Amino acid sequence: MDDTYKTIEEKAEGIYKEKGSKFIAYAYPIVSEDEAKEIVQGLKKEFYDARHHCYAYRIGAKGESFRMNDDGEPSSTAGRPIYGQLLSYDVTNILVVVIRYFGGTKLGVSGLINAYQSATSDALQNALIVEKTVDITFTAQFGYPMLNEVMKVIKDEQPKIEHQNFDNSCTIRMSIRKSRAEVLEAKLGNIEGLSLDIVGK
């Protein structure tokens, strides 16, 4: 089961210059479309004097959600080349915005495509690309007498404990990579009287 994906650890920058035009690329790790929109709006305010703010993003372990925007450049000369680099580097949960300062000389369609590709590629080369796992989150609720049995399963399967509360009624929220989730679910499901809530399956 494929339960990993590549993304960037933190913001990265790249630049490309051609015939007086300057293309500045900013790459950001993101997890939602709203986050992408917020960053784009922020950059438009910060670089209000730039001619274009073109971008592309991919979200989801397999890049299920994506968008490209040419922001006034000729169709498919900006957003698509940026997106193409995200595919080439096989990264997701990422937004790249390329800000263009016009230098007075038109670059033509092929020149624009090359410029947006090159700026994006430079940012991705400067980025720290990391591999992350697709995780499933379990919330187990059970009576205190079952605690030892639950903790034995946790010790065996090694999920990451995110929150726990031990009282008369105990709650443990834990996450585990997708490829190992089925075994954990089966073992916890065998404990009589335990209720299990699963997110991300």
Automatic annotation (TrEMBL):
<dbReference type="Pfam" id="PF01205">
    <property type="entry name" value="Impact_N"/>
</dbReference>
<comment type="similarity">
    <text>Belongs to the IMPACT family.</text>
</comment>
<feature type="domain" description="Impact N-terminal">
    <location>
        <begin position="19"/>
        <end position="124"/>
    </location>
</feature>
<dbReference type="GO" id="GO:0006446">
    <property type="term" value="P:regulation of translational initiation"/>
</dbReference>
<dbReference type="InterPro" id="IPR001498">
    <property type="entry name" value="Impact_N"/>
</dbReference>
<dbReference type="InterPro" id="IPR023582">
    <property type="entry name" value="Impact"/>
</dbReference>
<dbReference type="InterPro" id="IPR036956">
    <property type="entry name" value="Impact_N_sf"/>
</dbReference>
<dbReference type="InterPro" id="IPR020568">
    <property type="entry name" value="Ribosomal_Su5_D2-typ_SF"/>
</dbReference>
<protein>
    <submittedName>
        <fullName>Putative YigZ family protein</fullName>
    </submittedName>
</protein>
<dbReference type="GO" id="GO:0005737">
    <property type="term" value="C:cytoplasm"/>
</dbReference>
